[in-house]
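Researcher: For the record, we're logging two predictions in this thread. I'll number them. Prediction 1 follows.
Model: Prediction 1, sequence and structure:
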Amino acid sequence: MKLIHCADVHLDSPFTLTSPIEAQKRRTELRSDFSSLVLEAKKNECGLFIISGDLFDDSYITKDTADNICSAISTFPSCLFVIAPGNHDFYHEKSPYALIKWPDNVHIFRSDKMEYIDVPSTNVRVYGYAFTSDTMTRSPLEGFSVSDPTKINILAAHGDLGNPLSVYCPILEGDLAVSGVDYAALGHIHKASGLMKAGGTYYAYCGCLEGRGFDETGYKGAFLCDVTKEGTQIKPIGRSKKRYEIANVDVTGCRDMSAALGEIQKVCAPYGDDTALRVVLGGLVPQEFEVDEELLRLAVTRPYYVEVKDETLPVYDAEILRSDGTMLGEFYRNIEPHLMSDDAAEREKARLAFKYGIMALGGKEIKMI
């Protein structure tokens, strides 16, 4: 069975990072991404298209988007589209899954108990379940095994693998291993996992279709899968139109932003107009160093969106700090004996404490290392 495995599409997501005009453009691109996946399914003659949850952001879905998706699905009537609603688009009586008139080739799991549907004219059976609220503390996979091991058994599931305390359907690898499923098409984690195996069960997270913030960096997409009783192969498919990336630039020793621009431009050069870029400035700089965001944006012009984070640390004179009457001086006087310790481990702890203390006093985000 050839199939498309996608998840976490989040249609009509608000895309709050950008301007309203850009956000609307991103929402349109997201709908286009889904339609392109349907075309890929046609091109590869897939008999099955699995959506492993969070097709929508339920609070934001519009009728126009719903009509667009149904229209795309209707263009490929010989393919069975199977949807396992997730925590952001959970099934309830007023959800889009209940209110929209879906094409005949769509099957939506509506229960939080394990169910299945057989793909017509094949030896393929698809199991799945639905979130029926925005949380699910018990996994339907617990104690589950397929009823007919001779079939090609596929699972469409939204859940949190390997996190037994999760409130988003905690799936255990051991449950997958004994399930008898040939391939588990998972959703919920927005980063693609690649093909994994537990017992006789192959499984994968395909990731989201488009990143929506700097916690979802890189190009995104879906998987084209070829599932047999002998094994499973997957291939990334449908690259996202946009990506989020983070560029870390060390500006140690630069006296001002003008002196830092050359290094900043060199690090940011690989990123083009399909990229939303966060430039993180780090390193040791003079106390008078000031970040000029407008100057940086004028110098880094290729990404369609650029934001700056200042994580530089100023270089201080110990003699000045010893007599400083502010909180900074008091902090330094307390930590200085540890910075001068004969114990190397103590000096290192004090160095990190001073670093994080300076960041905290300067109102900067602290990232522990």
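Researcher: Logged. Prediction 2.
Model: Prediction 2, sequence and structure:
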Amino acid sequence: MVTYEQIKNNEEINTYIRKADESLSVLGFTEHSFAHVIKTATVASDILARLGYPERTVELCRIAGYLHDIGNVVNRVDHALSGAVMAFRLLDKLGMPAEEVAAVITAIGNHDEGTAVPVNELAAAIILADKSDVRRSRVRNRDFSTFDIHDRVNYAVEHSALVLDAEAKTVTLNLTIDLEICSVVDYFEIFMNRMLLCRRAADFFGLQFKLTVNGNVLM
């Protein structure tokens, strides 16, 4: 079986991740390198593990999370779709069975808010993990005077945590935001579609998605 460790240590795959992030850096996007893809893989797979999915499904979720942004090496536009095609080639070459390849590329192809639909458990978990990765360390720009709204919103987040309560059937994104840097309105201006997509992903699991900012429930 193809494992997460194999994928994580595959230099061809890691080259695509590095080069994709280099392109996004030039375009002014926040960090989409190893810190982001590892966090996505870890959080998404943890959701499935805590919901009782089989270990192999959890492992496939880790793999999909690690690979989900490789399409950015082609272009930011439609990167989920190009990433799914790239992942098909890579995983097929490594000998992954077609059924597993299908699950992984479906998740990758359905993670971008412009086209995403939580059509399987991997896709739903990756949506929640990917869209909740808001943090100061993702901001590349060190000149506060030139921050755009994306820089400000990410830099303002002092703490973020996605918390699953299986018993209460909730999944909550808890944010601590420095309101002197960014207002709650600013957050919703750029992340509203992502939060609505998280709600749909939570619905897939029969969970309620909640958002709290500085202790206040906003969704």
